Amino acid sequence: MADGCPALLQGDLPKLRAKESIDLCQQFGGKPLVVVNTASYCGFAPQFEGLESVYKEYHGKGLEMLGVPSNDFKQEDADSEKTAKVCYANYGVTFTMTEAQKVRGDSAIPLFRELASQSAAPKWNFYKYVVDRQGKVVASFSSLTKPDDPEFKAAIEKAIASRP
Question: Cα separation of 152 and 141, whole Å?
Fold first, then answer.
């Protein structure tokens, strides 16, 4: 824990279609968090809608959500404007989204390397990681787990109940 911030939340990421960066520790430190690797052209993209519903349901209780687009599975556009259109216009996403990042292997960004070390690397798009207030992965869920799944929601509630 450097500067009181867990390894998972070290560093900055560029925000989708914006000039500013996201300071992971500043924005998410001490908060329950769901991290999802996304892809605009994936068959699981309709999960954006369910993720947004979960975000709205639990945000008042402190939950944060971070969507990280990635072309690691060859289903994301190289044009961030098109990615933004899918997220914001098509699905009405209001949770934080980054520019496209590497999420697997040696070239994965530090956030996903730490998620993989605490849990497992994403095997496909729309892997969901539930992180507690201390920056520890409580649970991870495959692409097949829908956002309204009771186990996913139970993990979120556990993360919300965790102590900073």
Answer: 7
pTM summary value? 0.96
Judge contact between 161 and 132, C-beta under 8 A.
Answer: no
39 Ramachandran zone, left/alpha/beta (phi>0; psi -120 to 50)? beta
Query: In one letter, which amino acid is 124?
Result: W
What is the signed CA dihedral for 78, 94, 35, 33, rounded to 10 degrees?
160
Q: Give the angle 153-31-141 at the CA atoms, nearest 5°.
A: 35
Q: What is the pLDDT of residues 110-136, one digit of tens each?
A: 999 999 999 999 999 999 999 999 999
Report the catalytic residues.
Answer: 42
Instruction: Answer yes or no: is 69 within a domain.
Output: yes
Q: Which domain holds residue 125?
A: 7-22+43-161
